[in-house]
């Protein structure tokens, strides 16, 4: 009975267990997946994607596990992303073309295994396809300003508001336009294909029910220039021939167009038609006061005329036509060898344990081009001398050995040469079929400036496992990147620090020695037990922030200097901005900034970004803004400088062409030089044993800096490298100088051509001109140092005739007689291989100054070059030496083999030895077996983060940083030893942070220490010299282009700045005021000139703050100002008062208005009077803006109003008379009880050299600024500002305060312009009885909110009570009471 009870109990337990087996289905879809808009803005069907995580419960045996799915709607399983393992599954389902309305999906998931267990579970999900509510849709359009042509490739951006869901795509009509998503809820549009020269395109963005949004935007293919033959000059290079032979890559003919400059910002539209196609690509290279020169290429595919067209009155007109040009292109000849022969040396357990070697041989001709080899996943370009076995370039033998893994997954496997020659490689070992290695876990940490620490845990499948980032040929993580302390068994951990601006990443590849791969994309789920996903490290860490990567949330952009003079000097600057997407914490990514001017773009040709031109934001806690310090290169193109903000290298950047005028950066003066040095004269020098070239190098603006020139023998590839600087000058200077390169040959030599195969000429700003016969350069076609010699295809060739039999040619190659490799593994763990070898050539001897190359090769095209030195040499023999530093892990599981190439004799013949050739000659010296010490933990420093002269934090990137006992030693400039020891505050195996670098503007040296030392690494701080330099404008930026540059509209002469007629006064140093001084460290600081305030603080003690108030309404009947002009002679008080009853009002835009009136000046009693025009421009500023007036940068605060008052010629009765403009301001509280008022007049201390007045009532003030300069007769002249309250009987009570400011300017002839401005402030400290000169009523208390409203109204009304008068007065003589009474009467009426 007990046994039955036990059996019954077991049965019950088993039954309950079976009943508890189930499936859990979890919806892991994106939050915005359930309610969506149609696939396009005007369609009526939607697409959905739902993701599920399915888990079995109480399943023990997973053998034979499978999942199947049944769906109630037309959804399909995305099989490419489906994952299942151990009773867990990830499944993604797509539904396409689903109709409008609400619906639901029922997912039936079935699990089965080999035990016969079958479990089903249903899951229901509701979804909705809904139309966009067009009536609730708001939008904002940002249009390109087209300055310097669009750098973004976009004509405009439309930003939507009122969207409840994601708008996937926008439908459009009206032309061939490209519309694509950019920022969140934003789309860009562009006219990417030439259609016509209309200045304005119209695009209709289509929505449902016939709704649309029409947007007008400027065309990419039109300009604001009218260019024809009368105002342009075209020059063709070369100009003398119709048959042109290119003798280098991109060595095509060129054309330049020089046009009369009518704008510093807009560029002409030039198009070339070659009879087969049209293209438009010109580059500005020079610019002066009157002209701009552009350069472009002339390209055709067959003999044809080339016509150059320009835009004129919205049409294309022909300005030049070439004769029929027959251009013989320079191109890479295909590798067409004789048949390949393949030999094998398979793994023998002695020399090669884990690898096998194969050798290819053939014969061919050589023309200095690279050869591309590919095998499996890997591709590599090889240059001379690799693979050159014997012979000369006219007929040489190829002999190259390669290592591969000892087994192949299938045989044969294809090896390719130059992508067209296919060679079958066989294997004697075929690997069994196994799954590719997989990713177990991925982690990332942002370190600094787009640099991420990436960490991978992968599972080895028995054939080793590695990681490729982006592409295995770009970055491959092998054992040098292995974290062996975290690697256990078949789980291997790799880590690397990647600069994602330099190497943008979209995927990872896990691969093995057999070439099997598994690819993982950003955002992909890659594991189900546990459930893991590759989160995008391009997003902000704040997952709750819906404004990730939205650069349109950058606002309040200002520069330390908006207007820059960069004549022959680079200038440092700072950009400030706010980001409304939320404050980024320390672990968030900074915002990047890069100039997009012509000079900067030249420096970004090699990589996606150049670290020297990309700068990153820091948080300025004092002003609560982000700031970025950057450098503006000297002599870049004048006018607006385009720039770009980045939030990462993946998302759409924000270009300055879409930003308001206040956010533009402007170059006022520049000797623009966008072209590198060129050869203006070339002479060939050819004597008995010496030959070469004599060059005249021209760079008339920036000046020549240095050159790298390579000359090679056409037959034997002998190589001569020359590095020239101004130290090598034989005549002249860096702007125009002579240089010479010489080659000396012995009497025994081979006759052949010597060819200049590569030229790189750089000026002092890093702008280069390039030429090569073996590779192309970005911009190399236009930037050609041989631009003056494009007709002479032999200019880079010089034939050297040698005496002797058969022109001295020796057809027998040099012989390798001794070869000795030696491995050194010092105590610090690094590995070096030293080579010593001897070669002999008994017939002609070995050629001088030729240095063979030793190659160290591991499997998968891991090649390390070892360039030799000549240790000794005699007539027939030479001894060579070199050593190569091997990365950690190269010898861990793979052997390495050696080869030697580049032995050249004097008879024009070379020799080389593949690894297989060395194996035959030196059987025990051609390879080296794997060693366990290959994973020694040595310390290496590779690179560091940017650091400024302020010191502080420095990230150190390297390898071997495993120990917790590491320290960093620092040796500062001028020190003989390492004097500082820093302990890292953050440490990873390949990155560490120290935060105590001392401030320094000099390079310093660091090294890492544990038991041993790392390499020494020199750190170069970024040196910024931020100082305000008053600009000297040449052309003021305009908000809109002039439609017809040939019109008679006036413009500022660009040949010089606004001249100065008298010394401009500067303010005397002021005493720093306030308690604490200057408002404390968060409001300002005390300088030698007085308090300098941080925005938005203002005043002589930085205790007043600008109030943001609504823009006042526009008065269209008068300029919110009454402007009487009063005339007076020198000796009497007789005054003529002119009252303006009629104004002509002209709205300029929503923040600027203009008013015009006139009077008759002179002797009013005569008929010989003069019409004097008065123009008043009122401009409202919504945000901090830097403007320019009278050669001075002025910061306009938010909610301030600027008056620009311009008066034309006034007929003075006496040349000794001066003019005084009197401005009166009245500030009144809405209550007269318990108030205090105060007036202050003095000099500013923030560097703008102005006077200020401040009328304060309690804790609110009216602030006016009067610049001590004006533009008088087109010259900047000094003026004097005086407080006239005592003279004018101003009103001053506790609740009403009035001031009169007199602006005295000298006698003038043509015109005057003055530029005062006014703001409303709130003060940290209200006026009290204790303040000097204050007027108070009793029972003083703080203003109430109703009183504050009265002050704000009063401040707005102030615009209606500013009265300006001009009068002749004897200095300090004010006697006319009638004038004062008139003023006060009018003020009362206006207020």
UniProtKB/TrEMBL annotation:
Biased composition range(s): Pro residues: 1035-1044
Keyword flag Metal-binding: no
Stored InterPro entries: ComC_SSD, DUF7034, DUF7035, DUF7949
Region (Disordered): 1035-1068
Transmembrane segment boundaries: 1348-1371
Domain DUF7034 intervals: 816-927
Signal peptide residues on this chain, from the entry's feature table: 1-20
Residue span(s) of domain ComC supersandwich: 1126-1321
Residue intervals of the DUF7949 domain: 1072-1106
Pfam families the UniProt entry points to: ComC_SSD, DUF7034, DUF7035, DUF7949
Amino acid composition bias (Low complexity), ranges on this chain: 1045-1065
Record key words, sorted: Membrane, Signal, Transmembrane, Transmembrane helix
Record-annotated DUF7035 domain positions: 672-803
The protein, known as: EGF-like domain-containing protein
UniProt organism field: Dictyostelium discoideum (Social amoeba)
